[in-house]
Write a structure and sequence with these properties.
heterodimer, A: 315 residues, alpha+beta, Alpha-Beta Plaits, 2 domains, four-stranded antiparallel beta sheet, 4 strands, 7% strand, B: 224 residues, alpha/beta, six-stranded mixed beta sheet, 7 helices, 10 strands
Chain lengths: 315, 224
Amino acid sequence: MVKSSEMNKRVGINMRIRTLKYWLTEGGRGLVRNRLMSLASIATIGACLFILGIAYCVVANIDYILLEIDETIGITAFIKEDTEENEIQRVLNKLENRSEVKSVKYVTPEEAWKSFKESLGEDEALLEGLGDDNPLENSASFEITLNDINKQDQIIGYLDTFSEIRKVNHSKQSVDILVSFGKLIRYISVAIISILIFIAILLMNNTIKLTVFMRKNEINIMKYIGATDAFVRGPFIVEGILIGVITALFVTLVFIPVFSGIVNLIYENIPGITNLINFIDINSLKSTLFALFIIIGLGIGIIGSKTSIRKYLKV
Amino acid sequence: MIELNDVTKIYKNGVIGIEKFNLKIDKGEFAFIVGNSGSGKSTLLKLLLKELEASKGSVKINGDEIVGLKRKQIPKLRRSMGVVFQDFRLLPKKNIYENVAFALEVTESSIKDIRRNVPVALSMVGLAKKARMYPDQLSGGEQQRVALARAIVNDPQILIADEPTGNLDPSTSWEIMKLLDDINHRGTTVIVATHDKEIVNVMKRRVVELKHGKIIRDEQEGRY
């Protein structure tokens, strides 16, 4: 008894493997047989994935730029004149212990003056009349950068509690604008991505519908002979998967050079832009993009073929 | 074997397919279903094949109720039946052997079974020598014989033929009827829906005549 049930199991597995083989060969054949339609769907879905990739890169870049700005935009807290050195050290320590604070730098008046002169560059000559006087004598300050730009208000409130600090400079408005701009772009991108996925599924649906339609007699016969739905569906799902994977590979191969080309073009044509923004290195996004393309390509392939064959299975 | 009790099928558009229908066909029987178009012949066959669901009543095949049968269980039901159509429905891109083997492939039979059963079925219909030819190289009668081989290759208990001679000339029709008769003599229940008066009259088998979805005549050794 045991032996025969084991044998049945083995026969069952063999049959599964044969079924899988049948699906793969039939799916592959379907792809080749309808090569024009296959190419059309690879092209259209490819275009969708491409735009999707751009939307994703825009979001990734905005995140990256915001992060960089987070790091550079800081708060400057000016220290009252005649504050003792040890008092300054005490405030510095307290600030450094705050979780939202990334770094605190104590800037002496001399350092402030030096960096101001340097920022003028060639125009430094303008300041010659000042001689050795330091107009920024009262400008000892803390330069504070934050881990999270949204916590700016909290830290400003905290700074106000110190009597040693006479003035706090911050760029509240520009930060708010940047943050909400980033959010807006992200919402728009998500909307664009959803619409594109929807369109791609429709396109896929049409392609597979056509293949299914051309083979509806075959499906009909299969159903009458007693084929299960899964058996009939298999080759079409394989076809969808193949289209999805081919498209994803193709788009990844084309996308990365094109995107780095665009970034280089921007760098070359707008000199000095690197002072303002740096684009994220596309190579660091490579694997994420490929995974994104594969997952969406596969999803579109599978959902598209499943929905388009449903009607013909009802025999 | 096949038992319909008080079966009614009303289509979505309100048309009545069959109404309060009672029919019993025993194991090993041979029955003609006759009647004009719209008499309910197709509805009856589709109910047996579970292509349609009865609106009311009970349909039993081999003792199992198939009204309300789950979708998943339909393939198993159909594997116990063979079907032949007026238009043959062969796959043009597969050769004769492959067309017959296809019936076993879709039911996931073993390669051993396929190699053993396909030649037997082909020689039964007299086409063993044409196994490597394609459907468009065969005559209509030969194509229908291939369809018959495909229908019987998995040794079904019931064979349903829907106008099997509808597209064939009289002499070829006789070949097909002889094959159906042979298959019946091997113990398979055969149900044939037909318009062919001459065949029905000569065969002298059970005749069930339908009109407006009801049985108006049921005779053993009947005429058209």
